[in-house]
Give the backbone structure.
Amino acid sequence: MPPAAPPDAARQHPTRTLLILAVGAISFALAQTMIIPALPAIQEQTGVSEASVTWLLTAFLIVSSVATPLLGRLGDMYGKERLLVMVLLLFAAGSAICALGTHSIALMVAGRVVQGAAGALFPLSFGIIRDEFPRERVAQSIGLISSTFGIGGGVGLVLSGVFVDHLSLAALFWLAFGVTVVAAWATWRYVPESPVRAPARIDWGGGALLALALSTLLLGVSRGPDWGWSSGRVLGLIAGGLALAVAFVAWERRVPEPMVDMGLMARRAVWAPNLAAFAIGFAMFGSFILIPQITQAPESTGYGFGLNATQAGLVMVPSSIVMLIAGPLSGWLSTRVGSRIPLAAGAAFAATSFAVLAAAHERLWTIVVGATLLGIGISLAFAAMANLVVAAVPATHVGVATGINAIMRSIGGAVGGQVAASLLSSHLLANGMPAESGYTSAFAMSGGAALVALAVCALVPSSRPGRRAGTGEPARVAA
C-alpha cells in the first residue's frame, strides 16, 4: 500500500468530494443517452441522412473508448484531480460546440468528438476515491459513482424528451455545458490532488496501437446494420481491429514501461470482471434502444403504446430511482461478503428483467417492472465490477485498469446496441415498422447476455473482505 497522505482541510470532506465527483459523472452519463431520442429532430433540422446523424453516437463512442484508458493512465502518472479538471473542461467545450452548431451536422460531430474525452471521468473518479477516502467508505462510494452511469442514462432519456418536445436542441447541450462547468470549478476548488503517482514514460506506441484498434473495431461494429454484417467493409474493419488489438498486447509485453500492464490484466481477478463488463454492457445498451422504441411505437402496430418522447422517458424513471439505492448497496455488500455476490445478483436481476420484457411486454406496467428490475441489476453489477478491479490492482494502476473495464463495457454496449437494431430491422411489418417478434427476439438476446455475465461470476476468484485479491495485502475494498 502507498503511504497515507498527510491530512489537510480538503481531505477532511470526503462527502463533499463524492458529491462533486457524482455531478461530473452524471453530466457524462446524461450525454450518453440524451442524444438518442433527439436524433430524429437533429436529422430533420440539419437535413442529413439517417446514416450521417448516427455519427453523433459513433464518434462519441469511439473517442470515449480511446480516451478512457489513455487519460486514466495519465492520471495515474501525473495526478488524477488535474486530469479530471481537464476532461471536464473538454466536455464543456464539446457541449458548447454542439449547442452553437445545431444547424450543422459537421459541427455537432466535432463537438461530440471533443465530448468523448470525458470517458476518462469514471476511472479518474474511482482513483481519487481509492486514494483519498477512508477505507470503510471506498466500496460504497465507488458503488454510488458507478450507479450514476445508469441514473444519468435514464434521466437523460426523460430530459431529452422534454427538451425536444418543449424547448430546443441547443438547450440539450447548454444544460450539459452548465452542469460540467460547475463540476470542473468545484473539482479544481475542492477535490484534493492524489499523492499517489506512477512515474513513467508515456507509452506513445502502445497508445497509438490501442487507439487504432478500438477505432477500427468500433467503426466496423457501428456500421454493421447499415453496410450489412457480411459486407467486406464491416468484416475487414472488425478483423483489422482484432489484429491491431493483438499487436497492442504484443507491444505492451515488450515495452519496458507499458501503458497497460499485461501481467495485471492477465489476473483472473481482473479479466473475469472485464468479461462480465462486456456481457452486462451488451445487455444494457440493447435496453436503451428497445424500451423507448417499443413504448413509442404506434398503437396500430398491435404492440406499441404511442407515447411521445417525454412519456417514453418517464417509463425509465423508476429504474433510475432504484439505481441510486442499488449502487451503494452493492458497495455495502462488497465490504461484508465480497463483490462477487452483488455481481451475480446484478446479472440475475438483469436476466429476470429481460425475461419479463420478452414474455410480457403487452402492458405498460410490465415494461416499467422490467425496466426497474434492469436498473437494480445494472447498478449492482457496475458497482461490483468497479470494486473488483480496484481491489485487484495496485493504487498506481487504478486509473488504467478501471479504464479498461469501462472499455469492455462500451464495446459490449456497442455490439449489443447494433445487434438489437439489426434484429429489429430483420423483423419488419408491411408499413416498415418492426414486428413484435423482433422485440421479443432482441429482449431474449439481451437476457442471454445477462446469463453469460452470471456464468462468468463463477470465474471471479473469491476473497475475504478486507484483503486485496491475489496479493494478501490489506485492501480498501472487498474482492
